[in-house]
């Protein structure tokens, strides 16, 4: 085997190495994207559950929320608590939509 043939074989091996590296990189990028989507979905789910647990663990707040949602008159301090709860809920929903728009969460499986 002369030097020209050895250079050709080395070039072919180098080309295969580049192609295999690109395939591996694409695979890792895809896996990373999927993991990122799973992490974002986990965050959204935990935030939603946290909002439900706040109501479940606080009967007084639950009563305030239901009275406000049913358009009953409530004192100002209760209206304030309801407003803060509602604001927090809306911010959580907004976070979910932003993650969907940024393609951080699969919009088909996302439950907001």
Could you please describe the fold and organization of this structure?
With 112 residues, this protein is mainly alpha-helical. The chain has one domain (3-101). The chain is 82% helix and 0% strand. It has three helices and no strands. The N and C termini lie far apart (66 Å).
What sort of overall outline do the alpha carbons produce when their principal axes are compared? Answer: rod-shaped
Query: Which band does the percent of strand residues land in?
Result: under 5%
Spans of at least 5 consecutive residues whose pLDDT stays below 50 are: none
The tally of strands reads 0
Task: Work out the helix count.
Answer: 3
In N-to-C order, the SSE pattern is HHH
Task: Write down the overall mean pLDDT.
Answer: 85
* Share of residues in helices: over 70%
Major sheet description: none
Distance between the termini: 66 Å
Which structural category do the helix and sheet elements fall into?
mainly alpha
Indicate how many domains the architecture comprises.
Answer: 1
- Rounded to an integer, what's the Rg over CA atoms? 27 Å
Structural key phrases:
112 residues; mainly alpha; 3 helices
Question: Short summary of the structure?
Answer:
The protein is an all-alpha fold.
Secondary structure layout plus pairing:
Elements: H1 3-57, H2 59-69, H3 76-101
Helix pairs in contact: 1-2, 1-3, 2-3
